[in-house]
């Protein structure tokens, strides 16, 4: 089994591949734009994917499954990732599966060596801009269950800081929050007793390698069934609905 | 003329897939090296009417939902398989960035999966290249007027290659935008260009006098004042008068747009000495405009309606006359929102 993972939901562009052994291999390539610079999904995604394939010395037809991050995240980034994944899958008849970017992020905290026994719940938080956050939470021991992370304690949704605080406070469990949104809303979350790793921790980074891990064992499906999970309607639609009332 | 030679050569690019997503139409087409359109699929989103204009975020979402099916449809209608492709062509700009990115990401990945070359095409060159398609390719040199909801451009086309000389552009609204805005003021909804044309047929074009921006310098256009003039005229008239003269208003308004375009085209023909004219863009489908331009007495090329409005066959056509990027040189290709980059003035 050889799985290619792609993610463009955050500012980073992340590509990874895992191969079953022997010996098993994990390859990763990513692009993190410097602070203040625009994301480079459009330019880097396919190039990084080609680099990973080159490094693995395999061609497109030898990829068994593509796992693409479907968000939530930046709308334009998600579309670049999904459009790229769908076209690759379509061209080469490769099954495609969508992976929740929040679920993949949460997996960072439940991996061997990262687990904390004093934590029951992992909250994955992404910066949704406009002062809001995309967030979801799972029980730490359910996150790594391939393909079915169990019912999330907090379903993926967009939260204002106040709503996020209320929701997290209502979990009544020892929790850890990770992701760029956890950093953006550190104060709000810490006030609820949530633990947040230091700013530079790797735990905050969305990585496509987790997409591959979560996709392992999944079959994937028709490319066109995979679409971004925006979690937000476009502004024009909000205004139109408001005007109609 | 090197471009011409490559265009007529059936090798090495026999079958070209074109992809166009610069605005609100999701388009894919299959065109042969000889310029034969084997499939030209256009999925108009239609959802923007309720917002009174194209909403970039909504257009981008729809492109992503539609693009796979549109490409499949193009292959099915052309009766070829993706494995038979020789080249992928895609609109790189100008247009809505989010919308363009869906097409470019798709085209790049599709081409890369087969290690095919990829031709990034300028949307406006695409409109010009619609006239190079079989069965009646229009040969340069000629003057081209591209008028649509997104652009109004007058160009000197010397050969089929990607560079053409921009002689004039709109300074504000595009001609098609003027049609749509006028239609909205007349209560015809959005987009109302076609409805305005229908209504205008029942009216007298010389009832009202609207400005044709003839004072705009050189060969540039301006349509913003026209829309304002209509707005003021509507305010002056009573409700009953507007109701009674709606068709006259539409006819007079349409005439002003047509005359604005006609005046600059006539001037451009005389300044350049060209005696051949190609029209393109959605406005070229307007009957009154086509009729008026017949009076110029020059050789006139107007592609079929589905090749005038945004489509991917024109993008594939343009790709026949440029050097594509070989795999993997295009993996980092990005889009551009405005056109200054490729419209080389000579
Ligand atoms: Zn156009």
Give structural notes.
The complex is a heterodimer of chains A (245) and B (346). Chain A has nine helices and nine strands. With 245 residues, chain A is of the alpha/beta class. Chain A has two domains: 2-102 and 206-244, Nucleotidyltransferase, domain 5 (2-Layer Sandwich), CATH 3.30.420; 112-204, 2-Layer Sandwich (Nucleotidyltransferase, domain 5), CATH 3.30.420.40. In chain A, strands 3-2-1-4-5 form a five-stranded mixed sheet, with helices on both faces. A four-stranded mixed sheet of chain A has the order 8-7-6-9. The longest helix of chain A has 18 residues, at 75-92. Chain B is built from eleven helices and ten strands. In chain B, strand 7 (152-157) and strand 8 (165-169) form a beta hairpin. Chain B is globular, with a radius of gyration of 20 Å. In chain B, strands 3-2-1-4-5 form a five-stranded mixed sheet, sandwiched between helices. Chain B has a five-stranded mixed sheet with strand order 8-7-6-9-10, with helices on both faces. Chain B has helices spanning 2-8, 56-78, 97-114, 123-129, 175-185, 193-200, 224-236, 239-272, 287-294, 305-308, 313-319, and strands at residues 15-20, 25-32, 37-44, 87-93, 118-122, 142-147, 152-157, 165-169, 276-280, 299-301. The chains are: A alpha/beta (245), B alpha/beta (346). The A-B interface holds A 42-47, 50, 60, 75-76, 79-80, 82-88, 90-92, 223-224, 227-228, 230, 234-237, 240 and B 50-51, 55, 57-58, 60-61, 64-65, 67-69, 71, 82, 97-98, 101-102, 104-110, 112-114, 328, 331-335. Zinc ion (ZN) is lined by residues 123, 127, 148, 150-151, 281, 310 of chain B.
């Amino acid at each position: 089994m050889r799985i290619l993972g792609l993610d463009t939901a955050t500012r980073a562009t992340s590509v990874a591949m895992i191969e079953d052994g022997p010996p098993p291999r994990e390859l990763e390539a990513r692009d993190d734009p410097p602070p203040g610079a625009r994301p480079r999904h459009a330019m880097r995604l396919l190039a990084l994917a080609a680099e990973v394939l080159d490094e693995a010395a395999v061609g497109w037809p030898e990829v068994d499954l593509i796992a693409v991050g479907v968000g939530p995240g930046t709308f334009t980034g998600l579309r670049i990732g999904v459009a790229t994944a769908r076209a690759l899958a379509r061209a080469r008849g490769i099954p495609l599966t969508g992976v929740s970017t929040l679920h993949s992020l949460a997996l960072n905290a439940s991996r061997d060596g990262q687990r904390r026994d004093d934590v029951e719940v992992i909250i994955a938080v992404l910066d949704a801009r406009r002062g809001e956050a995309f967030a979801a939470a799972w029980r730490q021991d359910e996150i790594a269950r391939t393909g079915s992370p169990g019912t999330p304690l907090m379903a993926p949704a967009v939260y204002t800081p106040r709503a996020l605080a209320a929701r997290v406070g209502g979990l009544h469990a020892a929790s850890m929050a990770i992701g760029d949104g956890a950093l953006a809303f550190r104060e709000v979350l810490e006030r609820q007793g949530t633990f947040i790793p230091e700013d530079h921790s790797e735990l905050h980074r969305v990585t496509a390698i987790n997409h591959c891990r979560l996709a392992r064992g999944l079959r994937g499906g028709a490319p066109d069934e995979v679409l971004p999970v925006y979690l937000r309607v476009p502004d024009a639609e909000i205004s139109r609905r408001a005007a109609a009332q | 003329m090197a471009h011409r030679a490559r265009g007529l050569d059936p090798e090495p690019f026999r079958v070209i897939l074109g992809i166009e997503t610069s605005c609100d139409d999701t388009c894919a087409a299959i065109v042969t090296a000889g310029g034969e359109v084997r499939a030209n699929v256009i999925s108009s989103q239609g959802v923007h009417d309720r917002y009174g204009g194209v909403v970039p975020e909504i257009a981008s979402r729809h492109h992503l939902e539609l693009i796979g099916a549109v490409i499949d449809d193009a292959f099915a209608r052309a009766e070829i398989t993706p494995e038979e492709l020789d080249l992928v062509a895609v609109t790189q700009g100008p247009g809505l960035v989010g919308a363009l990115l869906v097409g470019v990401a798709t085209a790049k990945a599709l081409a890369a999966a087969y290690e095919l070359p990829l031709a990034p095409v300028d949307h406006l060159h695409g409109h010009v290249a619609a006239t190079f398609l079989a069965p009646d390719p229009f040969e340069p040199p000629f003057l081209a007027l591209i008028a649509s909801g997104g652009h109004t451009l007058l160009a000197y086309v010397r050969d089929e290659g990607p560079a053409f000389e921009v002689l004039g552009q709109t300074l504000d609204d595009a001609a098609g935008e003027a049609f749509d805005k006028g239609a909205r003021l007349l209560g015809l909804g959005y987009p109302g260009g076609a409805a305005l044309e229908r209504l205008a047929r029942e009216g007298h074009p010389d009832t009202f006098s609207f400005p044709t921006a003839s004072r705009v310098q050189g060969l540039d256009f301006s349509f913003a004042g026209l829309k304002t003039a209509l707005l003021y005229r509507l305010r002056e008239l009573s409700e009953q008068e507007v109701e009674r003269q709606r068709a006259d208003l539409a006819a007079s308004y349409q005439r002003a747009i047509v005359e604005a375009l006609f005046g600059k085209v006539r001037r451009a023909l005389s300044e350049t000495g060209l005696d051949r004219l190609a029209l393109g863009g959605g406005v070229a489908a307007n009957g009154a405009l086509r009729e008026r331009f017949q009076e110029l007495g020059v050789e006139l090329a107007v592609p079929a309606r589905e090749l005038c409005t945004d489509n991917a066959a024109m993008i594939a056509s343009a790709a026949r006359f440029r050097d594509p990027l070989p795999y993997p040189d295009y993996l980092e290709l990005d889009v551009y929102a405005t056109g200054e980059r490729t419209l080389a003035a000579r």
